Amino acid sequence: MRYRAGVDVGGTFTDLYLWDEDRGRAITHKVASTPADPSDAIVSGLQELLAKASASPAEVGYLSHGTTVATNTILQQAGAKVGLLTTEGFRDLLEIGRQKRPSVFDLFADKPPVLVPRHLRKEIAERLAADGSVLRELRGNEVTAAVADLVAGGIETLAVCFLHSYANPEHERAAKEVAEQTQPSLYVSASHELTSEFREYERFLTAVLNASVGPVLRGYMLHLRDRLAELGLPSEPYIIQSNGGLLSIESAVLSPIRTVLSGPSAGAIGAAQVAKDAGFPDVITMDMGGTSTDVSLMREGKPTLRTGQTIAGYQIRVPTVAIHTIGAGGGSIAWVDEAMGFHVGPRSAGARPGPACYGLGGTKPTVTDANVVLGRLNQDSLLGGAMPISRDLSTRVVEELADALGLSMERAASGVINVVVSNMVRAVR
Questions:
Q1: Which of 214, 313, 335, 339 is 20 to 30 Å from 93 by CA-CA measure?
Q2: 3-state SS string over the chain?
Q3: What pLDDT is recorded for position 403?
């Protein structure tokens, strides 16, 4: 196998990389992402990349894939409808959460929505002690009845979260087995499979989020595997997980929550290796994409790791590279609030419609449009001429922003850049 390939799907662009083992050279390619089906951009991009290298799919022996599917599903609250089985007396744990408010001094700050409505949470009369010993046995017929009620209520996926399962997972295993046997089409996620640590709220929440994104990511992964096989790749892709390691397709389908920082963690791991090889073991990495900017700290050539991550206000208890993410990218939208405050991001124009200059229907000024107006980007095309753009469209939307602010067009465009740079500098600090 002569080639190794890597694919990173971002909110705006999909980046592809091919390493030629024989010649020791790298070939890169970039295509617009296809949010409706990310595999479209991956397959078409790989075909174009291989054509660049005069290579065939059969020569690619390794493919790694950084994905944002799980992350975007959580951010957009577009996951499957979840049901919950939990220990009797703990039905409301997800709603109670922690005492800490999202913003201590903001009396109007809201917690993120509870992912499972109360009528879809079922209590099971089982109980384990903190040491894992059984205080009350699990009854399979009770699990069967509860799951049947939840399925009748319209759930598409199930989270099984019992007290103290980190000390003894047998009750969760048994309940999952009953659910899968009686409802074979149901995606089931058990909390002990994701984190075998105490702190019930974080463990339960991780399992529920895993269940929520599970059907979405399963459908995507299996579809991608089939399309890559049709393309002629001889091996299945590996999925990059949040701690920078690799997952097989099967493992990613079982625990998709481990892929929430898939792409950014790959960038951090790669940057750490390059910096270490260049003699700089202590570095800060910064990755500005179309939607966000990701910042990470490397010490002694290794990324900083942590045991959890907060996404959209939800605390996820899985190992991750310590990455600080802000909504500042090329597609970040500049806007003015009711008090005439000037902001850039976190909202993004994404890949569709994208910045106004793409000519795909974007009507909001973005960081990319500001750079085009200021002459910092090519005035006719991007991606080495492969992507034509319109300076006139950028000028139009930036002029509208300038009118709202009472500034010249150049001052408004400069303001967009200054604000987004300030946000990125704050992220680095």
A1: 214
A2: CCEEEEEEECCCEEEEEEEECCCCEEEEEEEECCCCCHHHHHHHHHHHHHHHHCCCHHHEEEEEEECCHHHHHHHCCCCCCEEEEEECCCCCHHHHCCCCCCCCCCCCCCCCCCCCCHHHEEEECCEECCCCCEEECCCHHHHHHHHHHHHHCCCCEEEEECCCCCCCCHHHHHHHHHHHHHCCCCEEEEHHHCCCCCCHHHHHHHHHHHHHHHHHHHHHHHHHHHHHHHHCCCCCCEEECCCCCEECHHHHHHCHHHHCCHHHHHHHHHHHHHHHHCCCCCEEEEEECCCCEEEEEEECCEECEECCEEECCEEECCCEECEEEECCCCCEEEEECCCCCEEEEEEECCCCCCCHHHCCCCCCCEHHHHHHHCCCCCCCEEHHHCEECCHHHHHHHHHHHHHHHCCCHHHHHHHHHHHHHHHHHHHHC
A3: 93
